[in-house]
Design brief:
By secondary structure, this protein is of the alpha+beta class. Helix content is 32%, strand content 22%. The chain has 1 helix and 4 strands; from the N terminus they run αββββ. Strand 3 (130-139) and strand 4 (142-152) form a beta hairpin.
Length: 156
Amino acid sequence: MPGGFTLIEALLASVILALVVGAILIPFTAGAQNAVQNAREVLAANLAQELMEEILSKSFNDPDGTNAGETNRMKWDDMRDYNNFSESQGNIRNLNGEIFTAPSAANMSRTARVESVYVAGQDTSNPPTFLRITVEIRYKGQVIKKISRLVYENKK
């Protein structure tokens, strides 16, 4: 019998080598996937916070008492103007109307709700003095970031 490997020994060595290489690569693949997921979550948090800050920069009540002429986001002047605000996947825009072009934002969408809220003990015959603002960021339709804020009308 000549000195060398038989076919079965060569196949067994190949299987063992494949298992070892696979075991070595799994942590690297998982780490890369986690890094992508973490970057996506950071971007979602930033997009949610950006919209929340934009909404909070507006008046609690409409300063001129009407929505006349408020045809786009740049002209909105009170928090309630953002109720049912929605940006579809790949169409998240900054305040100037420019689309956020980062590739990681391509499958993200953004929504906002602004709801009047009465708190316990508040007289519901009076106008509400609280608004609940909720901003959601979705990735491929799944909520990945949601922030809410309760805002009080500070009448001075």
